[in-house]
Amino acid sequence: MNDSPDDRAASAPRWWQRLRQGLARSSASIGGAIADLVTKRRLDATVVEELEDVLIRADLGVATAGRIVAAIAAGRHDREIDADDVKAILAAEIEKALEPVARPLALHAGKPFVILVVGVNGSGKTTTIGKLAARFRAEGRTVLLAAGDTFRAAAIDQLKIWGERTGAPVVAGAPGADAAGLVFEALSAARARGVDVLIVDTAGRLQNKAALMGELEKVVRVIKKLEPAAPHAVLLVLDATVGQNALSQVEEFRRTAGVTGLVMTKLDGTARGGILVAIAERFGVPVHFIGVGEGVDDLQPFAAREFARAIAGLDS
């Protein structure tokens, strides 16, 4: 990112507050259950088992939950343990699980850098594209948007609105137009204009998996005809409120679209933010951005330590 050190220092506390507030439901759910379990109780096998159940119910995943309770229990058997100590261990173990996948989205110098954005309808896909466009424009990059979700007129209109807001032109067709043909047109335009970044929206109809797979494969084939190395990034947008269903979405879109990175949205609307940990544990796919609100600045690069401490309810 091209922000100056002073800009980053000034924005960090604001983002931390938004992140803490956004993950408040998740941290309250986990922290409250932990406090209830360990207050004035000795750490015996029953408490350990109940702690593990709490973490599994918080969607952290079985493997991560097992590691966390093992770390909590180490050297503390039959002793009283403070809820804040448990939260500190929780944060440290979550950070360990997330650190390998917390990677920035790196844009190479070639033009255009092609980003294919996939995800089910309602995941926040089009809004995420708009926020990414705003981010890249703020860095001084030129951006072109392709309204490849041709099945929904609302998605086309929404992308046009974001294009106007961010100063990013939009290549769009009529509802029902051939998505692959539109993407070919957009990529041709991006190359001709020397655009830095092309962001392509796609349809997200998981209820018809065969049609979705066929369309995505066709879009990718068309892109590769013009740019053999493209798409350079395939971002899957996940809605945190769907909880465990996010795991099947990652599996499906990895198979159909070759997902290279994740964006998780709507973390402020759920107590199930721990699902990001389970996804990292199971798939190891890079997490580039997370969102905790509707504002443009509420989509930020993912940082493992910040997320882990916020979900544990600890200060920065």
Strand proportion: 5-15%
Mean pLDDT, rounded to whole units?
Answer: 88
Secondary structural class: alpha/beta
End-to-end Cα distance, whole Å, is: 22 Å
Helical run tally: 12
Could you give a short account of the major beta sheet?
8 strands, mixed
Extended strand count: 8
Tell the overall outline: elongated
Strand order of the largest sheet: 3-2-4-1-5-6-7-8
Write down the secondary-structure element order. Answer: HHHHHEHEHEHEHEHEHEEH
Radius of gyration, in angstroms, nearest whole number = 21 Å
Give the proportion of residues in helices.
Answer: 40-55%
Spans of 5+ residues with little confidence (pLDDT < 50)? 4-10
Topology:
Elements: H1 5-22, H2 24-38, H3 45-57, H4 62-73, H5 83-98, E1 113-118, H6 125-138, E2 143-146, H7 153-166, E3 170-171, H8 179-193, E4 197-201, H9 209-226, E5 233-239, H10 245-257, E6 261-265, H11 275-283, E7 287-291, E8 299-301, H12 304-312
Parallel strand pairs: 1-4, 1-5, 2-3, 2-4, 5-6, 6-7
Antiparallel strand pairs: 7-8
What is this structure, in a nutshell?
The chain is α/β, with parallel strands linked by helices and 316 residues long.
In words, what does this structure look like?
It is elongated, with a radius of gyration of 21 Å. Helices cover 53% and strands 12% of the residues. With 316 residues, the chain is of the alpha/beta class. The two termini are 22 Å apart. Residues 4-10 have low confidence and may be disordered. It is built from twelve helices and eight strands. The chain has an eight-stranded mixed beta sheet, with helices on both faces. Helix 5 (83-98) runs antiparallel to helix 12 (304-312) and helix 8 (179-193) packs parallel to helix 9 (209-226).
